[in-house]
Amino acid sequence: MTDRRRFLKASLLGTAASALAWGGKLPAASASPVPAATGARVISTWDFGVAANQAAWAILGKGGHALDAVEAGARVPEADLKNHSVGRAGYPDRDGHVTLDASIMDHDYNCGAVAAIEHIAHPISVARRVMERTPHVLLVGDGALQFALEQGFPKENLLTPESEQAWHEWLKTAKYRPSINSETHDYGRTADKSTGMPGGANNHDTIGMLALDAHGKLAGACTTSGMAWKMRGRVGDSPIIGAGLYVDGEVGGATSTGVGEEVIRNAGSFLVVELMRQGRSPQEACKEAVLRIVKRRAEASKTLQVGFLAMNRAGEVGAYAIQHGFSYAVCDAKKQDGLLPSPSVYTTSYS
What we know:
By secondary structure, the chain is of the alpha+beta class. It is built from ten helices and twelve strands. The strands form two sheets. It has an eight-stranded mixed β-sheet. A four-stranded antiparallel β-sheet has the order 7-8-9-10. It is globular and about 50 Å long.
């Protein structure tokens, strides 16, 4: 570990210890969908989080570490050719380039990320290498690709035939507007009109994952291909530590999904963790962060989705979203395929 990292680690741990406000006992959520639990647990965003959780549980269930679990879990949707919002089958930007973003963070404030990386199928694993093998947190674009190749990751063409066909369909109108809950609506579809795939507004999003292992350690991961048809060079919240992902081993972790620009504006995941530090339950913290976005973006929030998912160090889980339709997966020793609907501000989706 470099001197810089040792200094940051010591400083941040001291700050976390002095700021811890709940006195060791967490308040129960008034409407928490998941009760407090002991032992290992992993949670993730969206329906495709179920399979990701199960891959993570293969590690957690044997007493493995949370960091290994979230990396393994995130690699599942990255490799899923039915998933057009994460990884190798992700939809391209408006110029036809598939660019990927990812971040990873452990309980001890170690973190790494890549943004706008091309030709690498598993950006979450590159992000972990950035964390463990460089003095940096974030590498982007060509530099991130150069680092990945130096680390032995194979260079691949990530534009699948299905994604290319969808892109050509989009080019016929070249209209762009974020589509609420496209993670669910578009999963497993192709550009074939017989399946109902539109040629346009399918834009995002992400898998965010948080794990608590049997050793009481937390870790998180977040990976995405970003908004479909985005401007060349656009980066959302997923690789931004404190926006798309944040983990504090003294408090808990949070991750986000939806329109990344709104999450970045509010340092969303960091905000959720800080609210938990002040004593909010995970669900209360997620709700407060969502309501802050809605208050600041009252009119725009009616036609966009942002959701937060959080877990505290006791294993309590909570989520909240702007729009109806956000779901999250929960996996522990009792049940490995749990899928729950998130409460939301609006009960009817505008999609």
